[in-house]
Amino acid sequence: MAANNDKKINGKSTRKVIKQVFQGRTFLSLEFFKRNFVYVVACVVMMLMYISNKYVCQNAIREVMVLKEELDNAKTDNVNASANYNSMIRESQMKLLVDTMHIDLIAPDQPPYKLN
Fold first, then answer.
1. What is the rounded distance in angstroms from the CA atom of residue 42 to the CA atom of residue 64?
2. How far is CA 74 from the centre of its chain?
3. pLDDT tens track of the chain, all 116 residues?
């Protein structure tokens, strides 16, 4: 009875299982895939879902970065347009004020230059 004291795994003794593991015969055998077909397929499907989810997230992040850049450009264009508009309004109001007060001032055609 002492010789039969070895524990059994799936009907095989642990020594036999350990020997087969070291020889590389037990883990990826046809019997393993037959017994665990559902689990293997589920693992493969989950890995593919993980990879596809990662790909979708990376594409979404790239799109968000592009849209943020476009938004920054649009904001800059908006600020520039607002500044130009306010400048034109000030200039036209000044011209109107000069005309109503009958002051003989005109806008110069050439910009000022520095004399040395």
1. 33
2. 21
3. 444 555 665 566 778 777 777 776 666 677 778 888 999 999 999 999 999 999 999 999 999 999 999 999 999 999 999 999 998 898 888 888 888 888 888 878 888 888 88
d(CA 66, CA 63): 5
Residue 20 CB burial class (10 angstroms; 0-12, 13-18, ≥19): middle
Global pTM? 0.51
For residues 21 and 27, give the distance between their C-alpha atoms in angstroms, rounded to a whole number. Answer: 7
Token pair belonging to 31: 């019997």
Q: How far apart are CA 43 and CA 32, in angstroms?
A: 14
Residues in the chain: 116
